[in-house]
Design goal:
By secondary structure, this protein is mostly helical. It has helices at residues 5-16, 39-55, 60-67, 81-87, 97-117, 125-150, 175-190, 196-199, 209-224, 233-242, 285-289, 309-314, 320-325, 387-400, 404-417, 428-442, 449-456, 459-463, 467-471, 487-492; strands at residues 74-76, 268-272, 305-307, 329-331, 337-339, 382-386.
């Protein structure tokens, strides 16, 4: 792999990007068909198992709206159709989350294929274990997300080449069973994978030992919270996450975390690398989030989602994360200074507009300065795990485990980077509220919000102040704690019934 990884990645991205719908095609178990004869063949097959992570690039907006949209912080311009429904937490079984189901199960099947074929190659024992660990990390990642999104799902631990085989049309198993497999896979992977330093810069984006431990910690934190509320998991999360404390470090300047010239910095644990201007590959997020007439906005910017005024106002004015996350003022491509125009003011400037004219402030974390001639040329990587998340999880886990004083150093490390003072509160309930708010400020738009709301049991409270839910008169229903099983999958496999409650 060495120097071949990024060129092959570029090809994967090329085929991954497009505008076709992914919610109509039933999941196919057909995986990669390789002749496994040497390490290079295994590495090529492993890249195929990574492809569903890159495939999410087709639906960057849908993934964002699925995981970051269900919060009080995000507002969407287009209220009609799936985009508006997902932002207001009003899911349907025909919405684009079906594409994510399809993607993740494709990745699972490819990972299973690699795991089954590696022993026949004759690699050294340690190298064989390393390759299996990489495949098992990916399988765990896919199942972890499926469990978060859909709850009970089918469990496939062997590869399948045809959906015509009735044995693959399995019923769903419990969330506990899914998470048991995730735990086993990550425990296998954590001490067999390389560190990022060992991988080197030509293999950015591959699974690492640090990523396995970070996701193990997040798994335990998830199991501790709702709906499972498994005893002892907060302490277990704290112990596991502490194993990588100090292995990474916070970037001094918050905005530089997301700078295209500073990707895979000391804070990044697991991310999807994007390659700009390579046959149209890259991320579409900036296309949808770019403020009009900015140097980084293709064709003026679609500007389809933004962060709310209330979220902007919630920050301490000295908090560096406010301007690092939100583009309240900027200089446009014509050299004109533009300031966000609040409703009822006469100051000229930008106002988030469109149908029903919701108010919002442009998103500032994905800002590529060279978009070329296509909206798909943006090069910002998509970050799925970074060190600040680990620190805040450490704070939460220690606080919930009954050791609130131990939570403070981790919490304050994140706050100090944002130029804020220390928290000294040790009352568990009060500190819990502080940690929740810190996660909202620190990780806005980074695919964590929906999972956090699930774990905390706060989705109902969030919907009460969600600007899109209010505007569309969408009220909380317990069914919204999970996505519905996609209709296309039920039609292909009736054993998936019954659907999640309420659908």
């Amino acid at each position: 792999m060495k120097k071949l990884y990024k060129p092959i990645l570029a090809l994967i991205l090329l085929f991954a990007y497009g505008c076709e719908s992914l919610d109509e095609t039933p999941f196919s178990f057909i995986g990669v068909s390789n002749i496994y004869s040497n390490e290079e063949d295994i590495d090529k097959a492993l890249l195929g198992a990574y492809e569903p992570i890159f495939q999410d690039g087709v639906n960057d907006l849908w993934l964002f709206l699925s995981l970051s949209g269900p919060s009080e912080n995000v507002t969407v311009r287009l209220k009609a159709g799936a985009q508006g429904r997902m932002a207001s937490v009003n899911f349907r079984d025909s919405d684009p989350q079906g594409g994510m189901w399809n993607n993740y199960y494709r990745g699972i099947n490819r990972a299973n294929t690699v795991i089954e074929n590696i022993p026949s190659v004759g690699l050294d024992a340690s190298l064989e274990e390393e390759k299996i660990a990489e495949a098992r990390f990916l399988r765990a990642y896919y199942y972890f997300n499926l469990g978060h999104m859909f709850g009970a799902v089918p469990l496939h631990l062997t590869s399948t080449s045809s959906f015509d085989d009735e044995s693959v049309k399995k019923p769903r198993v419990s969330l506990e069973e899914i998470y048991k497999v995730v735990e086993e896979d990550l425990l296998y992977a954590e001490n067999r994978l390389k560190t990022q330093d060992e991988w080197g810069s030509t293999n950015e984006g591959r699974a690492t030992s640090g990523a396995a431990k970070a996701f193990l910690g997040k798994l335990y934190l998830t199991m501790a919270g709702k709906p499972l509320q498994t005893a002892g998991m907060y302490a277990k999360a704290a112990t596991k996450l502490a194993e990588i404390y100090g292995d990474y470090s916070l970037v001094d300047d918050y905005a530089n975390i997301f700078d295209i010239n500073n990707e895979f910095n000391s804070e990044i644990i697991f991310a999807r690398p994007n390659i700009p201007n390579v046959n149209g590959s890259g991320t579409v997020l900036t296309f949808f989030a770019g403020a009009p007439d900015t140097p980084f906005a293709f064709n003026g910017g679609q500007y389809q989602f933004a962060l709310s005024e209330a979220f902007y106002d919630s920050f301490d004015p000295d908090d560096e994360r406010r301007d690092g996350s939100m583009l309240y003022s900027y200089t446009n491509r014509n050299g004109v200074d533009v300031t966000y125009n609040r409703t009822g003011t006469s100051t000229p400037g930008l106002q988030f507009g469109g149908p029903r004219k919701p108010n919002g402030i442009p998103f500032n974390k994905l800002k590529d300065g060279d978009v070329g001639t296509s909206p798909f040329n943006h090069g910002n990587d998509i970050i799925f795990m970074r060190y600040a998340d680990v620190l805040l999880m450490l704070a939460e886990a220690n606080n919930e485990a009954g050791n609130s004083p131990a939570a403070l150093p981790f919490l304050n490390e994140v706050r100090n980077r944002a130029d804020l003072g220390n928290i000294t509160e040790t009352d568990q309930a009060l500190l819990r509220a502080i940690i929740k708010q810190e996660r909202k400020w620190e990780l806005a738009g980074e695919y964590t919000e929906y999972y956090d709301l699930q774990r905390w049991g706060d989705l109902e409270a969030s919907m009460a102040i969600n600007p899109d839910a209010i505007q569309l008169n969408v009220t909380y229903d317990p069914k919204l704690e999970l996505f519905p099983i996609p209709l296309s999958q039920i039609e292909a496999n009736p054993n998936l019934l019954p659907n999640n409650p309420g659908y």
